[in-house]
Amino acid sequence: MKSRAAAAILLAVAASGAAPVPGTTLVSGHYRIDWEEQSFTPCGGHERWWVSDPGPLASHYRKVVTDRNWGTVYATVRVDVTGPGMYGHLGIYPRAAAVREVVEARAPAERDCRARTIEAE
User: Fold this and answer.
1) Model pLDDT, residue 52
2) Which whole-number Å values give the CA distances from 40 to 23, 31, 56, 95, 102, in the listed order?
């Protein structure tokens, strides 16, 4: 009975767009590189994650952000997400993510993040 309740709570948290359970997650959001920043902000979430390994997203980023060193792309990616902690520059990020697969990457648009949240798998 307790395991069913725990599973229901985890499912409700994942569906609400709250922080994911650590592990591999398919997520859409904004990947940003700026001064001392390499972050991913998931749609529907309230956290910015440190991107410890952009993996295949790095080449997509360079195709979209061509006229300057810093910028933002909208992406749907499969990432390995850590549990809560202190990551990235000055430890200000509550989680770290390593990109494993890119489903979509493009320039940001107004329609971004509409009806897209963290998907728990």
Assistant:
1) 97
2) 16, 4, 14, 10, 13
